[in-house]
Task: structure prediction
Amino acid sequence: MTIHKEGYTTIALSILFIFVINAVVDYKYHDITWLRWFIYIFSAALFIIVLQFFRNPSRSFSSGENLVICPADGKVVVIEETEEGEYFKDKRLQVSIFMSPVNVHINRNPISGVVKFFKYHPGKYLAAWNPKSSTENERTTTVVEHKNGTPVLFRQIAGALARRIVWYVKEGDQVVQTEQFGFIKFGSRVDVFLPVGTKVNVELNQVVKGGITTLATLS
Result:
Protein backbone atom coordinates (compact mmCIF):
# COMPACT_ATOMS: atom_id res chain seq x y z
CA MET A 1 0.00 0.00 0.00
CA THR A 2 1.18 3.52 -0.81
CA ILE A 3 -0.04 7.03 -0.04
CA HIS A 4 -1.84 8.87 -2.84
CA LYS A 5 -0.22 12.07 -4.13
CA GLU A 6 -3.35 14.08 -3.21
CA GLY A 7 -2.57 13.44 0.44
CA TYR A 8 0.97 14.82 0.58
CA THR A 9 0.02 18.41 1.50
CA THR A 10 -2.69 17.40 3.97
CA ILE A 11 -0.38 14.91 5.68
CA ALA A 12 2.41 17.49 5.93
CA LEU A 13 0.04 20.04 7.47
CA SER A 14 -1.25 17.40 9.88
CA ILE A 15 2.29 16.57 11.00
CA LEU A 16 2.99 20.29 11.54
CA PHE A 17 -0.21 20.69 13.56
CA ILE A 18 0.58 17.62 15.67
CA PHE A 19 4.13 18.86 16.30
CA VAL A 20 2.94 22.31 17.38
CA ILE A 21 0.16 21.12 19.67
CA ASN A 22 2.43 18.55 21.33
CA ALA A 23 5.22 21.12 21.80
CA VAL A 24 2.81 23.59 23.41
CA VAL A 25 1.37 20.99 25.78
CA ASP A 26 4.82 19.66 26.73
CA TYR A 27 6.06 23.19 27.43
CA LYS A 28 3.05 24.71 29.21
CA TYR A 29 1.38 21.70 30.80
CA HIS A 30 4.26 19.28 31.40
CA ASP A 31 3.06 18.73 34.96
CA ILE A 32 -0.47 17.61 33.93
CA THR A 33 0.15 13.99 33.01
CA TRP A 34 -3.40 13.10 31.94
CA LEU A 35 -3.55 16.04 29.53
CA ARG A 36 -0.24 15.16 27.93
CA TRP A 37 -1.31 11.55 27.41
CA PHE A 38 -4.66 12.67 26.03
CA ILE A 39 -2.88 14.86 23.44
CA TYR A 40 -0.44 12.05 22.58
CA ILE A 41 -3.30 9.61 21.95
CA PHE A 42 -5.30 12.23 20.03
CA SER A 43 -2.26 13.02 17.87
CA ALA A 44 -1.63 9.36 17.05
CA ALA A 45 -5.29 8.78 16.18
CA LEU A 46 -5.40 11.90 13.99
CA PHE A 47 -2.29 10.85 12.09
CA ILE A 48 -3.63 7.34 11.47
CA ILE A 49 -7.01 8.69 10.31
CA VAL A 50 -5.40 11.13 7.86
CA LEU A 51 -3.12 8.40 6.49
CA GLN A 52 -6.03 6.01 5.86
CA PHE A 53 -7.94 8.77 4.04
CA PHE A 54 -5.20 8.88 1.41
CA ARG A 55 -4.20 5.24 1.17
CA ASN A 56 -3.69 3.71 -2.26
CA PRO A 57 -3.85 -0.07 -1.78
CA SER A 58 -2.37 -2.50 -4.27
CA ARG A 59 -5.08 -4.26 -6.29
CA SER A 60 -5.60 -6.68 -9.13
CA PHE A 61 -8.12 -4.86 -11.31
CA SER A 62 -11.00 -6.35 -13.26
CA SER A 63 -11.41 -5.69 -16.98
CA GLY A 64 -13.72 -6.53 -19.83
CA GLU A 65 -14.60 -4.94 -23.15
CA ASN A 66 -18.33 -4.75 -22.40
CA LEU A 67 -18.06 -4.48 -18.63
CA VAL A 68 -18.65 -1.32 -16.59
CA ILE A 69 -16.26 -1.51 -13.64
CA CYS A 70 -17.12 0.23 -10.38
CA PRO A 71 -15.46 3.69 -10.28
CA ALA A 72 -15.20 3.95 -6.48
CA ASP A 73 -15.14 2.08 -3.21
CA GLY A 74 -18.30 2.32 -1.12
CA LYS A 75 -21.88 1.13 -1.00
CA VAL A 76 -24.52 1.08 -3.74
CA VAL A 77 -27.26 3.48 -2.63
CA VAL A 78 -29.24 4.05 -5.86
CA ILE A 79 -30.31 1.80 -8.75
CA GLU A 80 -33.12 3.45 -10.67
CA GLU A 81 -34.28 4.90 -13.95
CA THR A 82 -34.13 8.68 -13.86
CA GLU A 83 -34.02 11.72 -16.13
CA GLU A 84 -30.43 12.85 -16.77
CA GLY A 85 -30.75 16.55 -17.55
CA GLU A 86 -27.23 17.80 -18.14
CA TYR A 87 -25.89 15.82 -21.11
CA PHE A 88 -28.28 13.12 -22.32
CA LYS A 89 -31.48 14.99 -21.46
CA ASP A 90 -33.41 11.73 -21.47
CA LYS A 91 -34.08 8.73 -19.26
CA ARG A 92 -31.05 6.75 -18.06
CA LEU A 93 -30.29 4.00 -15.56
CA GLN A 94 -28.53 5.55 -12.56
CA VAL A 95 -26.26 3.58 -10.23
CA SER A 96 -24.80 5.56 -7.32
CA ILE A 97 -21.99 4.63 -4.93
CA PHE A 98 -21.73 6.36 -1.56
CA MET A 99 -18.15 6.79 -0.35
CA SER A 100 -17.79 7.09 3.43
CA PRO A 101 -14.75 8.77 5.04
CA VAL A 102 -13.21 5.33 5.69
CA ASN A 103 -13.29 4.26 2.03
CA VAL A 104 -10.45 4.59 -0.46
CA HIS A 105 -11.18 7.90 -2.24
CA ILE A 106 -9.60 7.22 -5.63
CA ASN A 107 -11.97 7.32 -8.61
CA ARG A 108 -11.33 5.03 -11.60
CA ASN A 109 -12.58 4.94 -15.19
CA PRO A 110 -15.47 2.46 -15.46
CA ILE A 111 -14.84 1.89 -19.19
CA SER A 112 -12.18 2.59 -21.81
CA GLY A 113 -12.94 5.12 -24.51
CA VAL A 114 -12.81 8.78 -25.51
CA VAL A 115 -13.89 11.62 -23.21
CA LYS A 116 -16.68 13.30 -25.17
CA PHE A 117 -17.76 15.74 -22.46
CA PHE A 118 -16.36 17.14 -19.23
CA LYS A 119 -17.62 19.92 -16.99
CA TYR A 120 -16.88 21.13 -13.46
CA HIS A 121 -19.73 22.67 -11.44
CA PRO A 122 -19.09 24.69 -8.28
CA GLY A 123 -21.91 24.24 -5.77
CA LYS A 124 -23.14 23.41 -2.30
CA TYR A 125 -21.99 20.74 0.16
CA LEU A 126 -25.23 18.96 1.02
CA ALA A 127 -24.97 15.49 2.54
CA ALA A 128 -24.16 13.00 -0.22
CA TRP A 129 -27.33 10.97 0.38
CA ASN A 130 -29.53 14.05 -0.18
CA PRO A 131 -31.25 13.64 -3.60
CA LYS A 132 -30.51 17.30 -4.39
CA SER A 133 -26.76 16.69 -4.06
CA SER A 134 -26.64 15.35 -7.65
CA THR A 135 -27.70 18.70 -9.07
CA GLU A 136 -26.77 21.28 -6.41
CA ASN A 137 -23.45 20.15 -4.91
CA GLU A 138 -19.96 20.78 -6.23
CA ARG A 139 -19.46 18.11 -8.87
CA THR A 140 -17.86 17.07 -12.13
CA THR A 141 -19.55 15.36 -15.06
CA THR A 142 -17.58 13.14 -17.44
CA VAL A 143 -18.92 11.28 -20.47
CA VAL A 144 -16.78 8.55 -22.03
CA GLU A 145 -17.81 6.94 -25.31
CA HIS A 146 -17.11 3.23 -25.54
CA LYS A 147 -15.65 1.98 -28.83
CA ASN A 148 -19.02 0.39 -29.62
CA GLY A 149 -20.53 3.89 -29.53
CA THR A 150 -22.21 3.62 -26.11
CA PRO A 151 -21.68 6.72 -23.94
CA VAL A 152 -21.37 6.30 -20.16
CA LEU A 153 -21.68 9.31 -17.86
CA PHE A 154 -20.10 9.38 -14.42
CA ARG A 155 -20.31 12.18 -11.91
CA GLN A 156 -18.14 13.01 -8.88
CA ILE A 157 -20.23 14.69 -6.18
CA ALA A 158 -18.86 16.49 -3.13
CA GLY A 159 -20.61 15.98 0.22
CA ALA A 160 -20.80 17.59 3.63
CA LEU A 161 -17.19 16.67 4.45
CA ALA A 162 -15.68 16.49 0.99
CA ARG A 163 -14.52 20.01 0.11
CA ARG A 164 -12.28 19.26 -2.81
CA ILE A 165 -12.84 17.30 -5.99
CA VAL A 166 -9.81 16.50 -8.13
CA TRP A 167 -9.96 15.32 -11.75
CA TYR A 168 -7.31 14.20 -14.25
CA VAL A 169 -9.28 14.13 -17.52
CA LYS A 170 -10.43 16.57 -20.20
CA GLU A 171 -12.45 16.39 -23.40
CA GLY A 172 -10.70 14.45 -26.15
CA ASP A 173 -8.63 12.28 -23.82
CA GLN A 174 -8.38 8.56 -24.51
CA VAL A 175 -8.93 6.88 -21.14
CA VAL A 176 -8.30 3.32 -20.02
CA GLN A 177 -10.62 1.25 -17.85
CA THR A 178 -9.67 1.23 -14.11
CA GLU A 179 -7.03 3.96 -14.47
CA GLN A 180 -7.52 6.95 -12.17
CA PHE A 181 -9.72 9.77 -13.40
CA GLY A 182 -9.96 11.67 -10.13
CA PHE A 183 -10.06 11.83 -6.35
CA ILE A 184 -12.64 13.09 -3.83
CA LYS A 185 -11.17 14.10 -0.49
CA PHE A 186 -12.94 12.66 2.58
CA GLY A 187 -15.60 10.66 0.82
CA SER A 188 -18.88 11.54 -0.93
CA ARG A 189 -20.55 9.96 -3.96
CA VAL A 190 -20.11 8.84 -7.57
CA ASP A 191 -23.11 8.49 -9.92
CA VAL A 192 -22.96 6.39 -13.10
CA PHE A 193 -25.58 6.82 -15.86
CA LEU A 194 -26.09 3.92 -18.26
CA PRO A 195 -28.48 3.24 -21.16
CA VAL A 196 -31.88 2.02 -20.00
CA GLY A 197 -31.97 -1.77 -20.23
CA THR A 198 -28.31 -2.24 -19.28
CA LYS A 199 -27.77 -5.34 -17.16
CA VAL A 200 -26.81 -4.25 -13.64
CA ASN A 201 -24.59 -6.70 -11.76
CA VAL A 202 -24.85 -5.17 -8.27
CA GLU A 203 -27.64 -4.80 -5.73
CA LEU A 204 -28.75 -2.01 -3.40
CA ASN A 205 -26.60 -1.74 -0.26
CA GLN A 206 -23.91 -3.96 -1.76
CA VAL A 207 -20.37 -3.02 -0.74
CA VAL A 208 -18.26 -2.48 -3.85
CA LYS A 209 -14.58 -1.96 -4.68
CA GLY A 210 -13.32 0.57 -7.22
CA GLY A 211 -11.59 -1.08 -10.15
CA ILE A 212 -12.69 -4.54 -9.04
CA THR A 213 -16.48 -4.91 -8.77
CA THR A 214 -18.36 -5.28 -12.06
CA LEU A 215 -21.13 -2.68 -11.94
CA ALA A 216 -22.92 -3.56 -15.18
CA THR A 217 -22.63 -5.22 -18.58
CA LEU A 218 -23.19 -3.16 -21.72
CA SER A 219 -25.40 -4.59 -24.48
